[in-house]
Design goal:
Largest sheet: 6 strands, mixed
Order of helices and strands: EEEEEEHH
Strand order of the largest sheet: 4-3-2-1-6-5
Strand content: 35-45%
Shape: flat
Length: about 130
């Protein structure tokens, strides 16, 4: 059986973002989502694009034609570290830049942990 492009149905997604426990619709008629340098680029059926920073794909539901993103506030630092790591592996080199990037990941993690302490109180490890 041969299919023509006109025979297939294209999925167009509604895109939602989950941030601070709230779900919000941010785009319609999205046909492509691509992870770029620290952001997700959404492209709609008309060719327009939208950048969503600090987010990861949480769920793709084809039957509901929905794509759910979730804000991740450590994402830029983590992506930078992974980019440097990948480049180092590909070039078979070590660069001190990777240690700086790792310190940035740890610093952002510490900041997030301190935010939780302030909100909910710090409990000692058992």
């Amino acid at each position: 059986m041969n299919l023509k492009a006109s025979d297939s149905k294209m999925c167009e997604f509604k895109v939602y973002i989950l941030e601070n426990g709230e779900m919000k619709k941010i785009a319609d008629e999205i046909i492509k989502a691509k992870l770029e340098n620290g952001y997700i680029e959404l492209n709609d059926i008309l060719g327009s694009s939208k950048k969503v920073e600090n987010a990861l794909i949480e769920e793709i539901n084809v039957s509901k034609e929905s794509l759910t993103l979730k804000k991740v506030f450590i994402f830029p630092e983590l992506m930078n570290f992974l980019r440097i790591y990948k480049e180092s592996e590909e070039k078979c080199i070590y660069t001190p830049e990777i240690e700086v990037a790792w310190e940035e990941v740890k610093a952002k993690g510490d900041e997030l942990i301190k935010t939780l302490w302030k909100k909910y109180g710090r409990k000692p490890l058992k």
